[in-house]
Amino acid sequence: MKFNFFHSELHKDYTLNFQRVDGFYQYPPRVESLTHRCGKMPENSHRDLLAKILREYNVRLGAPEDVLENIDLLAEPGTAVIIGGQQAGLFTGPLMTLYKAMDIINRAQEASQKTGRPVVPVFWVPGDDHDFREVNHLWITDSENKNQKISLNSPFQTRPISFIPRKESFLEAVNALEKKTPRGRFKNNYLDLLRETGQKSGSLGEWFARIMISLLGHQGLILFDPMASGVAELKKEFISLFKPAASDFYQAVSKKEKELEEAGYHVQVQKDNRHTNFFVILGGERRPVFKQGNRFQSRGGDLDLTEDEFWDLMEKEPASFSPDALLRPIFQDFVFPVLASINGPGELAYQGQLRLGYRTMGLEQPPLFPRKSLTLVEERLLRHMEKWEVAPREFLEEGEKLWDKIVFRHTGVDLENIFNPSRREIREIYEQLMAELKNVHPNLEDLACKNLKRILKEVDYLEGRSREFQVEKEKTLSRQFDKILNSLYPGEKLQERVLNVFPFLMRYGPELLGIIQKGLKELKEEHGFLTTDGRWK
Predict the structure, then answer these.
(1) What is the enclosing helix (H) or strand (E) of 511?
(2) Residue 412 has pLDDT above 80, yes or no
(3) Residue 409 in contact with residue 388, Cβ under 8 Å?
(4) Is 39 buried (19+), middle (13-18) or exposed (0-12) by CB count in 10 A?
(5) Beta bridge partners of 203
(6) Rounded distance, CA 288 to CA 281, Å?
(7) Which is higher by pLDDT, 241 or 399?
(8) In a domain, 488, yes or no
(9) Residue 1 pLDDT more than 50?
(10) What's the domain count of the chain?
(11) Residue 32 has pLDDT above 60, yes or no
């Protein structure tokens, strides 16, 4: 099988065989875990401050009343959140970003019904993320079925995304999207949305957030950026909590890392024992902080302090610090009353190292639900698949090998079944020949083996040329096949990890968002194939 949805054995076991990994996680990924977690959640001590931060940030983004009502609800004791986040990619980045946000909304509604407790959806915008190369681009498929990359240029390669100022040149990406995408009934509407949100945004991170609010704000999705105004006070509280637990935290994480390795699983974050789990922002750039002997130093050497000086600086200037990938989930669960979180495969792997780490800070790891995953199947392409009696999943499982099956159905000619028996017959003939010739002289067996390789190479060449002639003869069929394969499995990667949502929205309009969200809510498998009119295939 070519296609494998699971990214690792840990991801697979977490999803299908949780009993194998239950020593690394607090709760199984089942709805029943929400009820158990609900009865054990402590009351959040800083709801008023959190609500104030969220209101100011979301109002600035132009959030609709639905979001503000949920923020007010979150300020009330007893309200919990379903939370998740994703890198702030250009124009929301790959499809999986929106899928995760929709999954958060769906899960919050489900959790509220299941527990009888108010639950609101929160999307964590990682504005402190500093890997510009991972978020500065998007991929689309142009009218000629070529995958096109649209990207931004910036001198700020290690600056937090919410600190990268939005430049007029960034809006050229909208023009590039316009030029590289085919016509669509809703194309101008979405180009206007991108330009308008871009003009209003002060940073790249804010542009991402404004787009997300424009697409999903009407469903009450609250956005949070750890670089937003007021969060420094929450960071200060967190640092005070973490400081006395730091040594125990490092030991707890190391213990789970060792257990993961002993169980045969990959450790997602190979932690450098010198790393403090914090980054420092100096001169606008975000750099890791390491403990070198008795000194705490940033990469590049701009920060060089004793341990006491380091903790004093963090408590005095908390806005200058941010947690790393391992500490971020715990910071998230300190900030919010988290009932459960939605996680991608990498995040689930991080969490496998953290169960004991939560406890060192008096917290409990919440239920972790895997992000739902799907491939969007356009109706115009589905018609060809149905004519060929081929399911969308087969394109991911067989890739280009599926071509022979489709051509055979279309023409009655199956090159694989023509050439493979011939190869077998040639090998059988030569095996008999070599058995006889080695009695004449030992060197003849080796010569016959080399001769066989040359003949099989010629057979391979003949098969290749036959395929070329076949493709030439079936040009229309070949174009249709390539278009479908590239749509469902671009670059031999899951569609949701590559393609951007806006070309789809330009063609199918805002109704598509509702179709996808309903589909995600219904999805029971690890990966589904949803048509643009809402059917499963």
Answers:
(1) helix 511-522
(2) no
(3) yes
(4) exposed
(5) 165
(6) 9
(7) 241
(8) yes
(9) no
(10) 2
(11) yes
In a domain, 233, yes or no: no
Residues 6 or more apart whose Cβ sits within 8 Å of residue 338: 80, 81, 82, 83, 332, 366
Longest dimension (CA), the chain: 94
Sign of the alpha-carbon torsion through 494, 499, 503, 504: positive
Q: What share of the chain is helix, strand, coil (3-state, %, to 5)?
A: 55, 15, 30
Least confident of 164-168, 196-200, 258-262: 164-168
311 and 388 in a single domain? The answer is no
Tens of pLDDT, residues 75-98: 999 999 999 999 999 999 999 999
Residues 468 and 385 both lie in one domain:
yes
The mean pLDDT value for 496-515 works out to: 97
Give the Cβ contact number of residue 159 at 10 Å: 20
The Cα–Cα gap between 102 and 371 comes to 10
Amino acid 47 reads R
Return the number of other C-beta atoms located less than 10 Å from residue 61's C-beta: 21
At residue 263, what are phi and psi to the nearest 5 degrees? -80, -5
Q: Average pLDDT for residues 497-526, to the nearest whole number?
A: 96
Domain presence at residue 276: yes
Tell me which residue range forms the domain holding 279.
272-323
- Amino acid identity at 126: P
Q: State the pLDDT at residue 271.
A: 67
Three-state DSSP state, 479: helix
Which one, of 418, 349, 408, 476, lies nearest residue 21 by Cα?
A: 349
> How far apart are alpha carbons 225 and 470 in whole angstroms?
55
Q: Give the containing element (helix H, strand E) for 124.
A: strand 119-124
398 & 474 share domain: yes
Q: What is the 3-state secondary structure (H, E, C) of 262-299?
A: HCCCCCCCCCCCCEEEEEEEECCEEEEEEEECCEEEEC
Give the residue from 286, 307, 323 where a domain finishes: 323
Same domain, 401 and 485: yes
| CB 115 within 8 Å of CB 339 | yes
SS3 340: strand
Neighbours of 189 (CB within 10 A): 13
Distances (CA, A) of 289 to 73, 272, 285, 301: 38, 11, 13, 9
- Give the count of beta carbons closer than 10 Å to the beta carbon of residue 37: 21
480 falls within a domain: yes
In this prediction, residues 322-340 reach a mean pLDDT of 95
